[in-house]
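Attaching the record inline, Q. Sequence:
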Amino acid sequence: PVEQSIIAKLTSAFSPLHLEAINESYMHSVPKGSETHFKVVVVSDKFDKVPLIDQHKMVHSVLAEELQTGVHALSIVTKTPEKWAKSQQVDKSPPCMGGNKL
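Structure, as predicted:
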């Protein structure tokens, strides 16, 4: 499954202090059981002194295959351990605004 691949690749690349891969496909107009919309939360010291946009590019690079073969949307939350210690808050994803009605 896609979720397990995401977890394995992010774990290998970032040795995260904290990692979540949340399948949010159920919030969208896709068939039941789909793995097309994910939110990832990655806390790693590899993000230290790296601008946020570059942190996101790092995650995109690691998950390039998934993004080309079925993952339609990827919400990314990256934090350093220092920032995670200050706030473990992760905003909820907004509701689906439409798209393909099946």
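The mean pLDDT is 90. The longest strand covers residues 37-43.

More tomorrow.
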